[in-house]
Amino acid sequence: MNSPVISRLAPTPSGYLHLGNAFNFLLTCLLVDFMDGHLHLRIDDLDEPRVMQSSVEDIFVQLEWLGIKYDSGPSGPDELFSKFSQRFRIERYHESLELLRKSGHLFACECSRSEIRQISSNGNYPGTCRNKKLNLLKGNQTWRILVPVQTLVCLKTFTNKIEKIDVSREMADFVIKRRDGLPAYQLASIMDDLELGVNLVVRGYDLRSSTGAQLYLAKCLNDSIFPETRFVHHVLQTDDAGDKLSKSKGAHSIQMLREKHRNPTWIYQETAKSLNLPFEEIQTLG
């Protein structure tokens, strides 16, 4: 990578951070430090009804406790809401949506999530409204991007290996504008990364399909920068039953775990262990 490395931490403040978040943050921080890069804190707060003030505060508390220092982004909740919130970038998101609409990449969909689950065995959108020619300017419907069969995109790994993702199989005709009118995650995420100049994205392997969706969006937007981004898709942290840790499933928060562990050394060691690195003597992040 010839240009300076730029990456980001991108938590969603819809619940308290858990061990899986800590693992992602630490790995991102270590990779950026190793490459003498720039780390930005981006908090994905676009879905305002799900944003919890206590969760926003928790992000800053736990980052400080973990010893993670970032180079740009909000220093606390006040600065997030006054300067860095995704709400300040909504106009840019809508400009991109309009560009995609005018270029013929979109179609309107009136299907609910429950209706899709009833007729789709794998959870992917089955194309119900693809050829209905519904009016995109009508309210109370989503906007989906048309993903033709066998739409392949190439992603570049951290070691510059090229991998292919079949977006039509992983994220068929995915939503880019929600029923409530808000831009969807995939669009907001890539637009934010482009604005920040991000060229290294570190995320869980479960988000590899999102990587494919965002690379496809870049292609539809005629962007040549995002495809040069390098991606690290890391192993997932799981609970005792082997299930992925998640806020929705009530994973133990770092806040709760801190009652048992007075310092973050154990998290550093668990992170190293997950990466198959020597961990017994690790005491600090440095």
What's this, in brief?
The protein contains 10 helices and 9 strands. It is of the alpha/beta class.
Any chance you could write out the topology, listing elements then pairs?
Blueprint: E1 6-9, H1 19-34, E2 38-41, H2 53-66, H3 77-84, H4 90-102, E3 106-109, H5 113-119, E4 142-145, E5 152-157, E6 162-166, H6 167-170, E7 175-177, H7 185-196, E8 200-204, H8 208-220, E9 230-234, H9 254-257, H10 265-274
Parallel strand pairs: 1-2, 5-9, 8-9
Antiparallel strand pairs: 3-4, 4-7, 5-6
Explain this structure.
With 286 residues, this protein is an alpha/beta fold. It has one domain (6-274): HUPs (Rossmann fold). It has ten helices and nine strands. The strands form three sheets. Strands 6-5-9-8 form a four-stranded mixed sheet. The two termini are 24 Å apart.
**CATH class, please?**
Alpha Beta
How many strand elements?
9
Residue share in β-strands: 5-15%
The N- and C-terminal alpha carbons lie at a distance of 24 Å
Oligomer: single chain
Largest sheet, strands/sense/barrel: 4 strands, mixed
Query: Strand-and-helix sequence, N→C?
Result: EHEHHHEHEEEHEHEHEHH
Provide the spatial order of strands within the biggest beta sheet: 6-5-9-8
Low-pLDDT parts are: none
Radius of gyration: 20 Å
Question: Could you say which overall geometry the principal axes of the C-alpha atoms support?
Answer: globular
CATH superfamily: HUPs
User: If helices are DSSP runs of H or I spanning 4 or more residues, what is the number of helices?
Assistant: 10
Give the tally of structural domains: 1
CATH topology tier name = Rossmann fold
What is the share of helical residues?
A: 25-40%
